[in-house]
Amino acid sequence: MDVDFTDPEFLRDPYPGLAVLRERGPVSRHAPTGRWVAADHATVGAVLRDRRLGRFWRDREPAAVYEPFNLLHREQMMENEPPVHTRLRSLVARAFTRGHVARLGPAVAAEATALLAATGPEFDLLAEVAEPLAVTVIAELLGVPVADRHRLRPWSAAIVRMYEVTRTPETEAAALTACREFAGYVRDLAARRRAEPRDDLISALVAVRDGTDRLSADELVASAILLLNAGHEASVNAFGGGVVALLRHPAQLARLRADRGLLRTAAEEMIRYDPPLHMFVRTAATDVVLAGVPIPAGGEVAALLGAANRDPAVFADPDTFDVGRDPNPHVGFGAGLHFCLGAPLARLELRTAVGALLDHAPRLALAAEPVQRPTFVLRGYTAVRLTTGAGA
Question: Is residue 235 flagged as an active site residue?
Fold first, then answer.
C-alpha cells in the first residue's frame, strides 16, 4: 500500500512513512499523486541539481480565473529555469545581498526580546512571538510601513495553502483574493519607493539593474511576494518546530543552555530534524533515468526533503535530535540553482530567536501538546503553548 500524504497519522509524524518510501528505493512511483518520489539523500540532491529536471511554470486553468495566482509565479525565479532563472536570480540577489541581511541583525534581536518581554508566564510561541517576529523581520527587509504590517501574515497564509496536496474551492478563492490584494499593495509600494527611495529591499529591487536590464513591474511584484511568502512561512514553522524538538529532548536543551556557542549547529539541526518544507516538485524536460528508474518527459518527480534529512547513509542516528551535529549536510534549504536565497536571513533569525527565548525563560517547558497543522508540504504547528516556569 502506498503512503497517504493526507492521512492524519502521517501528518502527525511523517517520518516512519518517509522511511518506508526510502527503503522502497531511491525512486519509486507514488500512485495516489501520479508522481515519482525521490526519498534518499543522494537522489534528492541529484533531483535538485539535475538540469534535465526543472521548474517549468504552467498557468493554472482556466487562466482567466487563476490569473492573480499565475502572475505571481510565472514571473519569479523559483518557477523558472535558465536562462530566465539566471537573469531573475541575479537581479534579485544583487538587491538582496546589498547589506540588507547584515543590517537586520540588531533589529531581529531587539524585536525578539521585546516580544518575549510582553508575554506572560504562559504564552503561545507562534501567535505571540514567531509570527509577529517573522512579519517584522520581512517587513523591515522589504520596507513595509508599520501601519500595514498586519496585512502581510493573512495574505501569505492564504496564498501558500495553494501548494498543499489537497485544497478546497474555499481555499483557492481565499488565495486568489490574497494574490490580487497583495500584488496591488506591492505595486503601490514600489511606486512610492520609485519616487522616494529608502534603505530597503523594495527600493533596491526598483533600482537594481544589470547593464540595461532591470526587473519589470510584474517581476518586481512576484519577486517581492516570493521573498515574503517563502521567508515568512519558513521562519515561523522552523522556529516553532525547532523549539518543540528542543523541548522534547531535555538533554539537548540543557546542553544548549550550557553552551550558547552551539546555537549555530542547533539551528541547522532544527532545519534537518523537522524541516518546514517537505516536498519540492520538478518536471522532466526530457526522458531521464534517475537511480535506474526511467522518468518520461513531462513526468513529475517529488524530492522529499524530510526523507533525505533522515537518511541513515548520511546522518548517524538520523532520528536523534543532536544540537551539536556537525557536519550537517541537510537539504532543508534546497540545493543547486534553486538553493534558498534567503537562507542567511533564515539562519540569523532562527539563531537569534532561540537564543532570546532561552535567555527569557530559564525553565522553559511545553504547557500543552502542540497543535499540528494538517498539511504535509509546509509542515508546522498552529499553536505551541509554553510556560516559563515563573513563580513555580
Answer: yes
